[in-house]
Amino acid sequence: MGNGTQKDSLPNVSVKNSWIVNEDNYFSRVDKFLRNVLKNVPLSAIYKLIRTGKVYLNEKRVKEPSVKIEIGDRIEIRNEDLSKYTREYKEIKPVKMNLDIIFEDENIIVVNKPAGVSVHPGKNVHKPSLIEGLKHYGTTKGFEPFLVHRLDKETSGVMIIAKSRQVARELSEMISSRDVEKNYVALVFGSPKAATINIPIDDQEAVTHIRPVRRFMTKLDGKDISLTLLDVKIETGRKHQIRKHLSMKGFPIVCDNDYGDFRLNRAFSKKYGLKRHFLHCNQMAFDFHGKHYKFEASVSQDLKTVLKLLEAEGD
């Protein structure tokens, strides 16, 4: 089974802090499995449990979040009181929503996610989430949606959703194995050159490739400010990866108040009317079941308006 552990001797039971992997709860990696079964535990705490050696797979300590698991495996958390974690978790309920559907077949549905819509219900999220809208759509079409990747609430663009648990497993595995191309468009402060950024995020490998497409100049608060439109390609999908990597390199995404300059963002927003960070997933491509898929989502209107205004200034 790849880990040299006899599984037949393990009792087929689930007790507190212990689970048997089955068809209903299966994910290909141990971290994804724990994120699914420990919905009240923050993501950072789950990775800390792994990092501090409290997670066991078939009686062996798990050392990496990416460790592969199989149906029949036993996963256990030792020496930790999970009841102390009280992250708010909302059950997913179907909500009617206007979905911008790019593509749909028997296996997947692809949508152009608008900015301002969370992918999943969460704390302080009052608007319906994308998965709730997809769940409603799925009830009318006879399928259950499964997320295989995520976009931040204020990031727009291509989102791929599986129509069955099995397809979700396969696509999640492909994404983890870096067999899916993911391209973004970002507008940043500064003048970065083409580069590969490989700074670890949360102690995990993270790889981002950037390429300048166009440069602009503007005046904000009386100062000359340089801006660069970037083509961004990511090999890994860490939380806030692009936003963190660009900020770490001194080129924060325009209007990203989590990782950028609040005063500069406020001045830009006032001048150009942008109400969210300038980041959009414009393309995803992969091979699946003998077919090549390539999905594109044009930059949304609010971002197009910003680019037109910047271009007009440069004329």
Automatic annotation (TrEMBL):
Domain of life where this protein originates: Bacteria
EC number in record: 5.4.99.-
Record InterPro entries: PsdUridine_synth_cat_dom_sf, PsdUridine_synth_RluA-like_CS, PsdUridine_synth_RluC/D, PsdUridine_synth_RsuA/RluA, RluA_PseudoU_synthase, S4_RNA-bd, S4_RNA-bd_sf
A Gene Ontology BP annotation from the UniProt entry: enzyme-directed rRNA pseudouridine synthesis
CDD domains noted in UniProt: PseudoU_synth_RluA_like, S4
Enzyme active site: 152
GO molecular function: 23S rRNA pseudouridine(955/2504/2580) synthase activity; RNA binding
Catalytic activity from the UniProt record: a uridine in RNA = a pseudouridine in RNA; uridine(955/2504/2580) in 23S rRNA = pseudouridine(955/2504/2580) in 23S rRNA
Domain RNA-binding S4: 28-93
PANTHER family the record matches: MITOCHONDRIAL RNA PSEUDOURIDINE SYNTHASE, RIBOSOMAL LARGE SUBUNIT PSEUDOURIDINE SYNTHASE C
Protein purpose: Responsible for synthesis of pseudouridine from uracil at positions 955, 2504 and 2580 in 23S ribosomal RNA.
Family: Belongs to the pseudouridine synthase RluA family.
Descriptive protein name: Pseudouridine synthase
Originating organism: Fervidobacterium pennivorans (strain DSM 9078 / Ven5)
